[in-house]
Write a structure and sequence with these properties.
single chain; about 130 residues; alpha+beta; 4-stranded mixed sheet; 5 helices; about 15% strand
Length: about 130
């Protein structure tokens, strides 16, 4: 089953994270949608995801995961040594999410905002909803 990643479409860090995932997901199990897109907004409504949640969100098996849990579940599916990061799931979620919040709170300041979207190559474009 396909897994959908919702991401902040105006954040450079988030965009680079999507590009990172695409390069390490040759099977194409992940599809992507910006949180700000019509489909992103619809998926948030369909899965009853709180409007204020602007974290990375992974939708799989008819439920969603956010913040550090989403990031670790995504890493588990990537090729290479990235799978080993999933071991951090053993750390209590509040501790993992505290670290996640530090990065999330500062991502725009550290990495900036996008003013325009890159158009992905045709073989990658089909993975965006």
């Amino acid at each position: 089953m396909k897994k959908i990643i919702l991401f902040d479409g105006v954040c450079h860090f988030c965009d680079k994270s999507v590009q990172f995932i695409i390069k390490r997901d040759p099977s194409g199990i992940f599809s992507f949608a910006s949180l700000q897109s019509d489909i992103g907004i619809q998926l948030k409504a369909d899965y009853q995801i709180h409007e204020e949640l602007d974290s990375i969100i992974l939708i799989e098996d008819d439920k969603y995961h956010s913040k550090s849990t989403a990031a670790l579940k995504i890493a588990r599916e990537l090729k290479g040594g990235w799978k080993s990061l999933y071991a951090f799931i053993l750390i209590p979620r509040p501790v993992r999410d505290a670290v996640y919040h530090i990065i999330a709170r500062n991502r725009i300041k550290w990495f900036g905002e996008k003013t325009a979207c890159e158009l992905p190559a045709p073989n990658i474009r089909k993975r965006f909803l």
